[in-house]
């Protein structure tokens, strides 16, 4: 009985500790945007991670359109907000994209990598 209790305690502890760290990605971009003469459309996100082991200098989100990746830059005023200008063909009615955030976290013996991929988003361009 004590062996089963020990296994249960280890399992529950691992479950609780594993459930505490959470990474969330929130898309702030407008789904419908008027056609831009330059063909560039702003994509903005907020990325939050409550794990203490994240190496914040390694966080790098990218916007993915097909096989193309467009790096995002951190905004000046808010440390967890990122943006980029997404190029869209002049004759396109819209574009489907995803956002991936890559980061490293402290681990023993060396830092390890992690990432989070968003669902697909649709940007509609209005004439």
Q: What does this 3D model show about the protein?
A:
The protein is mainly β. Strands 2, 4, 5, 8, 9 and 10 form a 6-stranded mixed β-sheet that branches. A 4-stranded antiparallel β-sheet has the order 1-3-7-6, with no helix packed on it. It has one helix at residues 2-20, and strands spanning 23-27, 32-34, 40-49, 54-65, 68-71, 73-74, 81-87, 94-105, 112-117, 121-126. The protein has one domain: Immunoglobulin-like, CATH 2.60.40.1930. 15% of the residues lie in helices and 53% in strands. Mean pLDDT is 88; it is low at 14-19.
Q: Please, how many helices? A: 1
User: Which residue ranges are poorly predicted, with pLDDT under 50 across at least 5 consecutive positions?
Assistant: 14-19
Tell me the number of strands: 10
Average pLDDT taken over every residue: 88
SSE class: mainly beta
> How many domain regions?
1
Helix and strand run = HEEEEEEEEEE
Q: Supply the CATH class.
A: Mainly Beta
Cα(first) to Cα(last) distance is 71 Å
Any idea what the radius of gyration is? 20 Å
* Annotated CATH topology: Immunoglobulin-like
Oligomeric state of the chains? single chain
How would a textbook summarize the main sheet? 6 strands, mixed
- Mind telling me which CATH architecture this is? Sandwich
């Amino acid at each position: 009985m004590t062996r089963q209790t020990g296994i249960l305690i280890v399992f529950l502890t691992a479950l609780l500790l594993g459930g505490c760290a959470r990474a969330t990605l929130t898309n702030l971009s407008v789904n419908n945007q008027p056609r831009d003469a330059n063909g560039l459309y702003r994509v903005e996100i907020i990325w939050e991670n409550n794990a203490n082991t994240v190496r914040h200098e390694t966080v790098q989100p990218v916007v993915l359109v097909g096989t193309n990746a467009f790096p995002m830059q951190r905004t000046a005023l808010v440390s967890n907000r990122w943006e980029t200008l997404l190029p869209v063909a002049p004759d396109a009615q819209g574009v489907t994209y995803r956002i991936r955030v890559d980061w490293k976290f402290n681990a023993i013996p060396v830092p390890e990598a992690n990432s989070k991929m968003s669902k697909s988003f649709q940007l509609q361009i209005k004439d």
